[in-house]
Amino acid sequence: MSLRSGLGVVRQELLCSLHRRSVSLENRGSIVSFTFDDFPRSAASAGAAVLEQFGVRGTYYAAMGLMNSSNELGEQFRREDLASLVGKGHELASHTFSHLSCRSVQLSEFRNDVEKGRRAIESASGADSGNFAYPFGHVSLRAKRTLGPFLASSRSVIPGLNGPEIDLNLLRANRLYGDLSASRAVEDLISQNLKQGAWLIFYTHDVRPDPSAYGCTPALLEFAVSAALGSGSRILTVQQAVAEVKLGTVDAAAEEADICALTPAG
After folding, report:
1. How do residues 129-154 score in pLDDT, each as one tens digit?
2. Assigned domain for 12 exists
3. How many distinct structural domains can be found in the chain?
4. Which end is more exposed in the chain, N or C (fewer Cβ atoms within 10 Å of the end residue's Cβ)?
């Protein structure tokens, strides 16, 4: 292991161990969630179609500043995609407004952009977006400590399973990239999650036959959804899963009030 990768491991351990907001999964059985970051239109069309085929729904982390643009992930979402997803029961969650890295700007600017993104989603769709994912997977201890209490959950790209104790300030998530050659790794994660009775979160970006390096094929997504259901796991949106685990917390009502209290730092 190189010095750089070793420092990365230490950094992840610190991020996961400090400023936690822990809740217990208890005996709810294995849960799987499928999430899409940014999000490209292909995730809203091909991705949603796969989920709906199985009668389940996903979580779409939207950075509203990317709306109507294009990049290496393909064409980004349009306003009508937001209404379509919400109307079909999918979750809209926040991903900042400008797709900012918390490591590249001052904490106050990052926090303001998180709030701007939430307000923009609510204005465009009427959906509450209290669940959040860090753009680029970049997290800092200061951001985790400051933002965590005001959000329903914050998702990372740190791999692993959530449970039996879940840190709502830094949910673990696992990439769903590539084609069916990744199916064995997907199966292994689902099997491990089932044995532990934990919560497994997958994330990807575009969903198309020839995906970017950060996306997957419709076939791989279909395989993953089918395998999760075939294992006996429940597929829930992040919002649904968080609502379930919060039922077991003493301060659930106070936390729900806090979710609406995020205001720009003074």
Report:
1. 899 999 999 999 999 999 998 999 99
2. no
3. 1
4. C
Amino acid code (one letter) for 14: L
In a domain, residue 2? The reply is no
Q: What is the pLDDT of residue 7?
A: 66
Please report, for the domain that includes residue 210, its CATH number. 3.20.20.370
Q: Which domain holds residue 27?
A: 22-259
Element (H, E) at 221: helix 218-230
Position 10 in a domain:
no
Segment 176-198 mean pLDDT: 98
Q: What is the pTM of this model?
A: 0.91
Measured distance CA(255)–CA(102) in Å, rounded: 23
Residue 21 CA to residue 147 CA, distance in Å, equals 11
Query: Strands 74-75 and 31-38, how do they pair?
Result: unpaired
- Report how far residue 28's alpha carbon sits from residue 246's, in angstroms, rounded to the nearest whole number: 12
Q: d(Cα 177, Cα 157) in Å, to the nearest integer?
A: 13
Residue 215 lies in a domain: yes
Q: Are strands 199-204 and 174-175 parallel, antiparallel or unpaired?
A: parallel
Instruction: For residue 264, count other CB atoms closer than 10 A to its CB.
Output: 12
Q: pLDDT tens for residues 211-236?
A: 999 999 999 999 999 999 999 999 99
Identify residue 161 by its one-letter amino acid code: L
Residues 71-98 have pLDDT tens digits of 999 999 999 999 999 999 999 999 999 9
Closest by CA to 88, choosing from 99, 80, 98, 96, is: 80
